[in-house]
Amino acid sequence: MSRLLAATILLISVALTILLTIACSVPIIIAGVIKLLMPLPGVWRAVSTFCNFMMYCWCEGLAVLLKLNPHLKWDVQGLERLNKKNWYLLICNHHSWADIVVLCVLFRSHIPMNKYFLKQQLAWVPFLGVACWALDMPFMKRYSRSYLIRHPERRGQDVDTTRRSCEKFRVHPTTIVNFVEGSRFTEEKQQQTHSPYRHLLAPKAAGIAMAIHVLGQQFDKLLNVTLCYPENDKTPFFDMLSGKLTRIVVRVNLMPVAEELHGDYVNDKNFKRRFQLWLNTLWSEKDALIENLKAEYKKAGH
Questions:
Q1: Residue (of 178, 183, 266, 279) closest to 219 by Cα position
Q2: CB under 8 Å, gap of 24 or more: what pairs does 209-213 form?
Q3: What predicted TM-score, i.e. pTM, was given to this entire model?
Q4: pLDDT digits (tens, 9 = 90+) for 210-238
Q5: Which value, in Å, is the radius of gyration of the alpha carbons in the chain?
Q6: DSSP line for 178-244
Q7: Which residue, 74, 116, 73, 71, is CA-closest to 97?
């Protein structure tokens, strides 16, 4: 693909994505204002249903935009036995901004609408930030270790945010999505954080432990999702926008929310250690899976 054609496709894709986002987020924002002005349970339920429908429309629009790329192929396994009437906790590796698009498009007709744990900075993105607030998505504020040493009162704030947000998800079947690494993977971040994994950052356990603790038995299953872009590993989001993305690989592992995953992560040190061991083991398996997928497609490419 020539640079001129790629640049043209990029501009058109960005413009269409922005228009789609505005068209779907404005009604959500208006509905959010109504919810703010009329704090009645019936109004809140109706607004939540409407907002979820508008997010579904946004996902459908993204799916149409992806279909405009004739070179894009999907390799997906594990969508069987999913149900839109269930509650799910979805954990996933985070490689690129493309991940959110992939999850929205792939799962839009299989499970309840995704609710993402988002960075606090995204709250200030025009249209998108306010729309995410109206959709009750939790905004998480990360603090460095040195900052927490100087301000110990800030410890546990993400846990409190998780608790308050999860309480809102009891009414409607919901999929709570957590990129447990807390940030997109880069080789620089991998080295800075001394990650023990080749393709992943170390996972952060507090958010999903609190989600399981608050919603208890309400979660029907845990969705362990692994994403990989074997032919566009360096810049998948840019390649997605410019029509150069050629393959998206997704593996979905449907797991029970085992009884041993329920506990007090904040106050029970033994449970905290067991939960972290479980998550680290899961991440080691995910790292090996990504390594195998990349090797498989590299071999196929030759």
A1: 178
A2: 209/261, 209/263, 209/265, 209/272, 209/275, 210/159, 210/162, 210/163, 210/166, 210/265, 210/266, 211/89, 211/162, 211/166, 211/176, 211/178, 212/89, 212/257, 212/261, 212/262, 213/262, 213/263, 213/264, 213/265
A3: 0.86
A4: 888 877 777 889 999 999 999 998 899 99
A5: 20
A6: E-TTSS---HHHHHHTT-SSSS-PPP--HHHHHHHHHHGGG--EEEEEEEE-TTS-S-HHHHHHTT-
A7: 116
Q: What is the DSSP letter of 146?
A: H
Which residues are registered as beta bridge partners of 180?
Answer: none
Q: In angstroms, what CA-CA distances link 36 with 23, 32, 33, 207?
A: 21, 6, 5, 26
> CA dihedral defined by 216, 217, 219, 222, rounded to 10 degrees?
90
Which 8-state DSSP code applies to residue 111? Answer: S
Angstrom distances, CA of residue 2 to CA of 7, 11, 113, 171: 9, 14, 38, 51
Q: Do 52 and 113 contact (CB within 8 A), yes or no?
A: yes
The values of phi and psi at residue 215, to 5°, are -85, -10
Measured CA to CA in angstroms, residue 100 lies from 106, 148, 164, 212 at distances of 10, 29, 23, 22
Q: Encoding tokens for residue 291?
A: 């390594």
Instruction: Enter the tokens of residue 255.
Output: 């797991």
Give me the mean pLDDT over the 225-254 stretch.
Answer: 94
Angle at 195 between CA 194 and CA 199, to 5 degrees: 135
Please compute, for residue 181, the number of CA atoms within 13 A of its CA located in the half-sphere on the CB side: 25
